[in-house]
Write a structure and sequence with these properties.
single chain; UDP-N-acetylmuramoyl-L-alanine:D-glutamate ligase; 16 helices; 22 strands; six-stranded mixed β-sheet; seven-stranded mixed β-sheet; Protein-Tyrosine Phosphatase, Chain A; Rossmann fold
């Protein structure tokens, strides 16, 4: 919604918006864009005399502002519908969907098209370092959008991506998530099937060929061209460096990517295949990705103090935990990876995928979990990890515990889809107070 507000402002509208607990980097972007941000949902905002109220899916019945909007019969519309009707119509939409990797793949795709001088518009659920903003209109005919399967609004329970009508669709992967609105994986597959049904015959689907759930989605009916990527796919990348990209018998060249991890190499492969549909050759895409600077909060280094590196990562699902930990271990094979996470997403709060946690965190050398307010027994779930995992309900106490444990060379991976109480800055400040090397040898884990 913050990105949409920037797009509306840039297209000539006067925009204000309300939310609770708006935090960087989005709060900084909105300020820079001239969008007025109002804390909370008080009904006195009706004095703004808006022409339209664009409603995000966080707003529910009972919201005081929404209740007055309904009572007075004012004009309101969902964010995805407003975007589709006002900014996407007539453009070639390249949508990136899937449980994991949407933000990074969308940012890569926007980078590739921009590098090819196509000046794409984009709306991304993060901040690509190459653009420093999460949204822009662009002057070219193409628009890259992160296509979320979450529901549209309290009055429109379809998935957001059904509004976008893409001509190029990336299907990265698919597993159970969003347990607050989907009963099971089958229900999510149905929404993806509905998305596939909206594509014209001339559209192209770029799908992860090794993903069984996506295979089931496409088997339910597909009327567009499909190109697969990954293991056994038409678009492939070698497992070992140099990472060579190929499309059938044609070798496009080597992928040189600053972002670590096999999952990010597959994200890049999907972006290359999608860009190929709009005329960007693989060689040009690889040249663009060699300069790709990543996305904020995706394995983003926040600082190094006394040899300890603090890394911020948006991971909020066990699969993402495992991918991020594995990527860091491969990047720093001689250093410990310390995982710090909070089960904050709606899926995690419900414990819907809790059984996956021990396995997803097992590659970390130590695990710290902040579980204040969680209604299921996190310590019991993490018990298979033994003394390697501890659960805390006090953030300050957990910061102290982490600071007393880490030592020079450690990679401290903080994973959350929220601000996490600004724990990154707390850790940096606390580690700065600690004497270099104090007790390091005593704390060395086996």
């Amino acid at each position: 919604m913050g990105g949409l507000a920037q797009l509306a402002q840039a297209s000539g509208h006067e925009v204000s918006g309300c939310d609770t607990n708006v935090y960087p980097p989005m709060s900084d972007q909105l300020t820079a864009a001239g969008v007025r941000v109002i804390e909370g949902y008080s009904a006195d905002q009706l004095s703004l005399d808006a022409d339209a109220w664009v409603v995000g899916n966080v707003v529910t019945r009972g919201n005081p502002l929404m209740e007055v909007i309904l009572e007075r019969g004012l004009t309101y519309v969902s964010g995805p519908q407003w975007l589709a009707e006002n900014l996407l119509r007539g453009r070639h939409v390249l949508a990136v969907a899937g449980t994991h990797g949407k933000t990074t793949t969308s940012a890569m795709l926007a980078k590739i098209l921009d590098h090819a001088s196509l000046d794409p518009g984009f709306l991304i659920g993060g901040v690509p370092e190459d653009f420093s903003v999460s949204a822009r209109i662009g002057t070219g005919p193409h628009f890259v959008i992160e296509a979320d399967e979450y529901d549209t609004a309290f009055f429109d329970k379809r998935s957001k991506f059904l509004h976008y009508r893409p001509r190029t669709l990336v299907l990265n992967n698919l597993e159970f998530d969003h347990a607050d609105i989907f009963a099971d994986l089958s229900a999510i597959e149905t929404q993806f099937h509905h998305l596939v049904r909206t594509l014209p015959a001339t559209a192209r689907i770029v799908a992860n060929g090794a993903d069984e759930a996506l295979g089931r989605v496409l088997a339910r009916g597909c009327w567009s061209e499909v190109q697969t990527f990954g293991i056994g796919g038409q678009w492939r990348i070698s497992d070992e460096p140099p990472y060579r990209v190929s499309n059938g018998s044609d070798v496009g060249g080597e992928l040189q990517l600053a972002m670590a991890g096999r999952h990010n190499r597959l994200n890049a492969l999907a972006a290359i295949a999608a860009a190929h549909h709009v005329g960007v050759c693989a060689t040009a895409s690889l040249a663009a990705l060699a300069d790709f600077r990543g996305v904020k909060r995706r394995l983003e280094v926040r600082g190094v103090v006394n040899g300890v590196t603090i890394i911020d990562d948006f991971a909020h699902h066990p699969t993402a935990f495992e991918q991020s930990i594995t990527a860091l271990r491969a990047l720093h094979p001689h250093h410990r990876v310390i995982a710090v996470f909070e089960p904050r997403s709606n899926t995690m709060k419900r414990g819907a995928v809790s059984a996956m946690l021990p396995g997803s965190l097992s590659a970390a050398h130590r695990v710290f979990c902040f579980a204040d307010g969680i209604g299921w027994n996190v310590a019991e779930v993490l018990a298979p990890l033994g003394s390697l995992a501890t659960v805390h309900d006090n953030l300050a106490a957990m910061v102290e515990s982490i600071a007393s444990f880490v030592e020079s060379g450690d990679q401290l991976l903080v994973m959350s889809n929220g601000s996490f109480g600004d724990i990154h800055q707390q850790l940096l400040a606390r580690l700065a107070q600690r004497c270099d090397g104090s007790g390091d040898s005593a704390k060395r884990a086996a």
